[in-house]
């Protein structure tokens, strides 16, 4: 059974660090994450707005994502039937079959979904592949990632087949406090 968490705060905010300069604000409520990000990365800017709807088991049911870049505005909608079958903008997306979470490149907040949804015993590596929505072009791909809970309550995280590694720190509500190299909680 997944861990129990405190109630979400009315809002949370993150400052991006290292490769990305920017800020994210989210207004979490039960069953929904509604947020915005503005960032500068590799000389390119983007603004992303998102609304993610979750079922009672913390599985993503729908993610609406809007992006604005120098190339103009874009939007995409990814939907799940709750059993691992996905559509992207209404079209079947079999390359995403079996996934339970959405992970937005423009968001530190979306790393809260697996820790709420999964049973993560101390020391056990748990695969948590996700539907990954890229910030600049809203391309939707499969992202392989793992989580492993440490005895101190932090989580070892890997993605891209282990090419990226970080130790994630969460608050009592299960929201990221420190995502080394990516973001730090600002409020």
Quick rundown:
The chain has about 190 residues and is mainly beta. The chain is about 5% helix and about 55% strand. The chain has one helix and 17 strands.
Helix and strand arrangement:
Elements: E1 12-16, E2 20-29, E3 32-41, E4 44-54, E5 60-69, E6 72-80, E7 86-88, E8 91-92, E9 101-104, H1 112-117, E10 125-127, E11 130-133, E12 140-143, E13 145-149, E14 155-159, E15 164-170, E16 176-179, E17 183-185
Organism: Cellulomonas pakistanensis
Protein name: Glycolipid-binding domain-containing protein
Describe the protein in words:
There is one protein chain. The chain has 187 residues and is mainly beta. It has one domain (12-185). Helices cover 3% and strands 53% of the residues. A hairpin with a 2-residue loop joins strand 7 and strand 8 (91-92). The two termini are 29 Å apart. It holds the Pfam family Glycolipid_bind. This is Glycolipid-binding domain-containing protein. It comes from Cellulomonas pakistanensis.
